[in-house]
Here is the input.
Amino acid sequence: MTARQHKLINQPAAIVDEMLAGFCAAYSDIVRLDGRLVQRAQPKAAGKVGLVIGNGSGHEPAMLGWVGEGLFDVNIAGEIFTAPGPDSIVEGIRAADRGAGVLLCVSHHAGDRLNAEIALELCAAEGINNVDMVLLYDDISSAPPGREAERRGTAGLFFVWKMLGAYCEGQVSLSQAKALAEKARDNTRSLAMSLSSCASPVTGEVMFEIAADEMEIGMGLHGEVGMGRQKSLPADATIDLMLPPILQDLPFTAGDEVLVLLNNSGSLTLMELYILYRRVAQKLAAADIRVYKAWVGAYATTQEMAGFALSLCRVDAQLKALWDAPANGAAMKQL
Amino acid sequence: MTARQHKLINQPAAIVDEMLAGFCAAYSDIVRLDGRLVQRAQPKAAGKVGLVIGNGSGHEPAMLGWVGEGLFDVNIAGEIFTAPGPDSIVEGIRAADRGAGVLLCVSHHAGDRLNAEIALELCAAEGINNVDMVLLYDDISSAPPGREAERRGTAGLFFVWKMLGAYCEGQVSLSQAKALAEKARDNTRSLAMSLSSCASPVTGEVMFEIAADEMEIGMGLHGEVGMGRQKSLPADATIDLMLPPILQDLPFTAGDEVLVLLNNSGSLTLMELYILYRRVAQKLAAADIRVYKAWVGAYATTQEMAGFALSLCRVDAQLKALWDAPANGAAMKQL
Amino acid sequence: MNSIGAEELRGMLMALAARVAEERAALNRLDAALGDGDHGSSISAAFALAAADCAALGEASLQSLWLRTAKMLLNGMGGASGALFGSFFLSGARQLQGVERLEKCQMAALLRAGLEGVMARGKAKVGDKTMVDALAPAVAAFAAADDYSQAWRQAALAARAGAASTRSLVPRQGRAKYLGERAIGIQDPGATTIALLFEAADTWWRNLTDEKT
Amino acid sequence: MNSIGAEELRGMLMALAARVAEERAALNRLDAALGDGDHGSSISAAFALAAADCAALGEASLQSLWLRTAKMLLNGMGGASGALFGSFFLSGARQLQGVERLEKCQMAALLRAGLEGVMARGKAKVGDKTMVDALAPAVAAFAAADDYSQAWRQAALAARAGAASTRSLVPRQGRAKYLGERAIGIQDPGATTIALLFEAADTWWRNLTDEKT
Ligand SMILES: Nc1ncnc2c1ncn2[C@@H]1O[C@H](COP(=O)(O)OP(=O)(O)O)[C@@H](O)[C@H]1O
Ligand SMILES: Nc1ncnc2c1ncn2[C@@H]1O[C@H](COP(=O)(O)OP(=O)(O)O)[C@@H](O)[C@H]1O
Ligand SMILES: [Mg+2]
Ligand SMILES: [Mg+2]
Ligand SMILES: [Mg+2]
Ligand SMILES: [Mg+2]
Here is the structure.
């Protein structure tokens, strides 16, 4: 299967702005648009830590769909698969500032980290104080244990966003918020795979080549290469291949309680994801790991790539309560 | 682009059962599985009208994801793209019966209607009383105005499910429930299009052929042919082509208030859908039609088909209130 | 032989199941052009279930076989054709109450009841490009023939001609309806199945009675 | 000519923008093999923005041009290379305070500050298969040369050799890092851009001074 190179857009140069306009029009009860900033329609009360994330576009509903009550205050949308530059990050930080400091979340990729660092230097230079950043990562394929901080951020950060968002609805300090994000991150592990490539909506170019009977394990969120290619396997065998390295990495052990995410990279069908989840549930039960809650769906996509990420997050009472707290983003709703 | 014929499943014969097992395991706080019946984990209180829908599988998250509080009581899953048989529909009706009658919702396709009719005859023969069915349709491409009852049911029934689900949480009679469903249906119109085909997960066969630079307008929910083929157009031009016939059909006129759904048939990206929605919003504003709420996402899919349906539902105060009422299905959450 | 008992009927049902299974892919292709591409898969799966169920039935009566087949088609298949093929068998089942062997005129009545059941359920008339276009002439030819041997042969020929006639028709029922004129040139899959079934019955009869096909 | 003023610098920036625009697709292809396939698109878009911005600037100083370029690269590009190419220009901008013309040794210092800015920001060292592998030898060659003419030429040659050297390296920074050994054989896109830029500067210099390239 080749990627769908014809996309239903107007002109490539306008896609990000038109997408933001459409998204914010559709969900005007939740968000409003200001340039490249997607902000809450009703800002958070003063005196609470502001939460900001900048990221390359092309992963919808991430991160637009995560702005809202119990989630982010501001999302700064970059070009497709490209971290936004420092000036717009600074703008985003200003917009999220409710007088109690702002935490800039960075899903670890070189571009996101570098631009965040520059943005923080600019904040310091401009006298915007009480701003900090937290580097988040979860992809076990991108560096071995012991070198976690070199890993990429992928779909599993879903857990961190949700919990941190809930946490920052309360009266917490910036340093507490950062510590909570690190706690959630340090309990999260992910591994992705893909059966097909996808095309860049800007260039129309296929992002990578893969044979119809092959799969790649460990794909990054932008189609970056993973741990390697092999012949594709049936659903259960694919999970049997991917789950053990995730479990060993943290490690997750008998008696642990976890949240599970099966994230659709794009064009896998939900039918396939539910079939995959069945096996995950069986294997976790066999390992005596209890699933607290599971989510199966498209939360952070790589255009129309046919693949998925499996993510686990070990939870304690605090993280469970944060998970269950209400949230109202276009793409993440918790009642 | 050709369809992805290799799916991430185990054996084709087991897909429906494995999918149901996975889905119900993932969302065990919302649903439980009994054979081919997906039921609420916590049944509705006695004395309320039960709501049942049977449908072919392969459209996930429909309809599994619509079982839950404020939505359906029971979904009867058929084989892929195939209405379930009468015995399982009767089982579903029994399971949803809380002593105040059961309404069987039928998304109009020959198979669904015929099996529902037989099931109702069986109910009568077996002394299960106070059961009725309502035939629902919305696809303007499948019959001209004046012959609405011949039309197919497609993604726009989303509005009916939501409102009817909310309505049946209250103390209403079976005939009131049916009347409400008809009211919502009679205010709903949809039109779909597709850029690509998809493959049947059972046979691995591509469902239909379409050239890389063509689109089909008016696709049914199973890849049934629509009103015709033409060269594909940019996003705005596609909306400019599809919206007017929808508006004329009801007709929706200046001063109307509407709900809008842009439903992803499968592998369109959300980016594309948001860009499309931008144009819908512009055009509706120009026609002085007010959007009450909009939803953009994959609610009723046709496997990995790259296409979308545009649906509008004209609302009054009653329908708006029902729309806003809480709902908690895996695929439909309203806070 | 001029009557059919339960054991023969069971054999016939097996023969029918085997025949549709052979044509699974071809029937799917016809349905892909006119509908949703599943007719071969679902009809062959349902007949296989019915055959297995009938085979598993120990002591069987004509009625129990006919009724089990009805139920397996109705519930093992789903979709439009599950309901319609199921109704075919369901409609005649009452006539078999207490009947031990079926003579040709009784079989004709059974088939007629089936046709009526299909038409009552599906509302299709001859010319609507459905299975009825094969079934109605087959039932008529069966009734008009003098004996079983003639009847199966004439019914098979009529069903085949009826199926072929659907090629030039515009569909007025089922999923294909929405295709309108674009359906012209393609043979209806349900009608094709009817032709296959009558042809299989004819072959089965000839094997049973050792006549040359 | 042995010094460069604001008007010449503006011309040079235009020439650089034109050159990367020509290689857009080729740079995308290198990045597709090693990263996310966008390097050509983003570097050419950002340089085009910078060139347009500098062109629109009425009365310009060396510092304002250098700073505007820095800001356009930082904010018009995003991504890792936006931050890094932006840092290159940003780091030297302070040195241009009040300077009207740049002699060769001042230009060498400006480039050196840029290299240091990139290395401070990105933490890459020579051998990590990044733009630094082209930039570091280019800056050194520029400094070692006697005059502008020699300097641009030697820097371009060193940058090209440095870019070529990345082919055999294993990446230790950026997205390509995760490829490990599989990246061997492919030239780093960022280093390739550096080579293109120095080559374009050399050509620009020769056109300006009417020397044969
Ligand atoms: N109303 C009807 N009356 C008689 N036959 C019908 C009717 N609707 C459909 N059919 C038959 O059913 C066939 C399609 O069967 P099948 O593909 O198994 O069902 P589905 O349309 O549910 O996928 C058609 O070819 C046609 O012969
Ligand atoms: N830490 C770093 N230090 C220096 N150069 C780097 C570093 N990381 C990446 N690069 C350079 O950036 C180039 C990739 O640029 P580009 O594709 O535009 O950015 P992105 O990786 O954000 O898509 C690489 O080829 C490499 O030369
Ligand atoms: Mg990039
Ligand atoms: Mg079907
Ligand atoms: Mg069919
Ligand atoms: Mg890149």
User: Anything to note?
Assistant: Chain D has one domain: 3-212. The radius of gyration of chain D is 16 Å. Strands of chain D lie at 3-5, 101-103.
